[in-house]
């Protein structure tokens, strides 16, 4: 990448990482108040509704990424009429999607009781309506965020979301503490979502006035065909991801109950928050990858891919080990013993996180390159396998929530451990994927082995003081992870590259 791209990517990463870490603190404050003021039933409702409307929003999935990909070339050429044409198309598409989601959401309302087993929730339909309003409001103006992402200015999106989310969570904390009112809590969310999108829209209009100078521009039929093809493929890919990550709560609520959703919500918050931080960091550099793919040689791009993969691999091991060793004691200390779930829920949660995180570098390059053929078909198969396995395991075994998570894990292993790698190398790099497949599978097995071995070794730590015990576990986890990674990969060129980069940064700070 050129220096300018590196600088933009670095700025995007720093802002994304910094803002998301701060927001994590706010999320845990709000969740703590939620647990103590409203309880696990409403926590379960919140989790269920969030998953429901993630599923309802499938119509949008893939459009933003497809538009970003098509904007890279006109932005590089400073073709303002073409940029305006794409944005005009994007606006109309989002308006249609918002209308579709509204109709779908209203149509499902009479069947809401079918996904809630046994529990009565006061004001359920008002709660549902507010979630629907929040989802619809997210489609107003938000299409303009894509332009900032394509210009490698994702940090502006992140700062906008950061400040409005801080205001939202601050007001919601007051409402929970003083009024214990979930409906007012949701009203604040709807208002802040709308205002955030309105403000970012004004920012884009001010910085890109040419959008209003070319209001009559249209994309060509060929360009529309390319977008339609990419959107359909991306839609399939994103639907698969939604099924894997956003239907678990729906199945839990349908077959087990809202209380179980509330219990699992804390585990989900921890893993989802960490995933959100890492994914935001990765999405911040996708535009730079897309720019790089146009300007750099194939060999340079493949080398960059392997470096990024190895860095993500190391981070995945360390984070997964921390989750495996610390999540249960953290939930116990934070939410209470009644929210602690069994070992198998913990194990499958961590392994799903590990596999998902190991995919992120591959997915980032795949989307940036537009290597999306057959993603739709793959995701249909993925969705069917995941839903079938999860429902069978929750209804035909005594595993409960763990059975649902096990279904997701099996789906990840059967499909996602190889398919996206195949797509990236065959379509993106136009190289044989065989070497990388064995490389990837080997690293997945090594990562799993390290996580489980570190968990076993740290289980022998037993100190009388619980806080000292927790601190000792944290230190031991980090030391053991670094030790095992160094032993296994010390001579690896990408390990040496990471070590050299860290040494340079440390020397620069001295």
From TrEMBL:
A GO cellular-component term linked to this record: plasma membrane
Transmembrane feature ranges: 12-36, 48-72, 93-112, 124-141, 185-204, 239-261, 267-289, 310-327, 339-355, 387-415, 436-455, 467-488
Broad class of where this protein is predominantly found: membrane
Subcellular location: Cell membrane
Keywords annotated in UniProt: Cell membrane, Membrane, Transmembrane, Transmembrane helix
Top-level taxon of the source organism: Bacteria
UniProt keyword Transmembrane present: yes
Membrane topology per record: Multi-pass membrane protein
The name this protein goes by in its record: Lipopolysaccharide biosynthesis protein
Organism annotation: Pseudolactococcus paracarnosus
């Amino acid at each position: 990448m050129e220096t300018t791209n590196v600088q933009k990517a670095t700025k995007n990463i720093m802002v994304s990482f910094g803002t998301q870490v701060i927001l994590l603190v706010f999320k845990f404050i709000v969740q703590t108040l939620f647990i103590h003021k409203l309880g696990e039933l409403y926590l379960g409702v919140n989790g269920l509704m969030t998953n429901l409307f993630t599923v309802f929003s499938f119509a949008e999935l893939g459009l933003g990424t497809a538009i970003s990909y098509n904007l890279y070339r006109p932005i590089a050429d400073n073709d303002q009429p073409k940029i305006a044409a794409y944005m005009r198309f994007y606006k109309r598409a989002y308006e249609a999607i918002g209308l579709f989601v509204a109709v779908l959401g209203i149509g499902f309302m009479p069947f809401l009781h079918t996904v809630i087993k046994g529990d009565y929730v006061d004001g359920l339909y008002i709660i549902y309506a507010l979630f629907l309003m929040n989802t619809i409001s997210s489609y107003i103006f938000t299409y303009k965020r894509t332009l900032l992402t394509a210009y490698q200015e994702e940090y502006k999106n992140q700062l906008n979301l950061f400040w409005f989310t801080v205001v939202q969570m601050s007001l919601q904390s007051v409402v929970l503490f003083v009024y214990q009112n979930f409906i007012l809590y949701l009203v604040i969310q709807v208002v802040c979502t709308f205002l955030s999108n309105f403000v970012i829209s004004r920012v884009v209009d001010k910085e890109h006035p040419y959008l209003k100078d070319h209001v009559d521009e249209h994309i060509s039929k060929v360009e529309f065909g390319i977008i339609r093809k990419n959107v359909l493929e991306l839609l399939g890919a994103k639907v698969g991801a939604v099924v894997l990550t956003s239907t678990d709560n729906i199945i839990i609520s349908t077959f087990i109950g809202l209380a179980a959703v509330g219990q699992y919500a804390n585990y989900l918050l921890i893993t989802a928050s960490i995933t959100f931080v890492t994914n935001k960091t990765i999405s911040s550099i996708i535009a730079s990858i897309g720019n790089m793919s146009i300007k750099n040689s194939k060999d340079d791009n493949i080398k960059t891919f392997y470096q990024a993969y190895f860095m993500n691999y190391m981070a995945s091991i360390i984070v997964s080990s921390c989750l495996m060793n610390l999540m249960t004691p953290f939930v116990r200390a934070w939410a209470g013993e009644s929210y602690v779930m069994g070992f198998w829920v913990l194990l499958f949660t961590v392994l799903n996180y590990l596999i998902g995180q190991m995919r992120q570098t591959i997915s980032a390059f795949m989307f940036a390159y537009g290597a999306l053929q057959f993603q739709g078909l793959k995701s249909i198969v993925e969705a069917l396998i995941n839903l079938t396995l999860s429902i069978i395991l929750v209804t035909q075994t005594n595993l409960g929530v763990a059975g649902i998570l096990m279904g997701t894990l099996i789906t990840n292993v059967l499909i996602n451990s190889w398919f996206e790698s195949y797509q990236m190398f065959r379509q993106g790099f136009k190289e044989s994927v065989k070497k990388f497949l064995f490389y990837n599978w080997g690293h997945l097995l090594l990562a799993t082995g390290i996580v489980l071995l570190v968990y076993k070794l740290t289980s022998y730590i037993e100190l009388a003081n619980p806080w000292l015990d927790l601190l000792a576990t944290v230190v031991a986890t980090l030391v053991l992870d670094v030790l095992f990674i160094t032993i296994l990969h010390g001579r690896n060129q990408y390990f040496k590259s990471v070590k050299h980069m860290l040494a340079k940064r440390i020397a620069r700070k001295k």
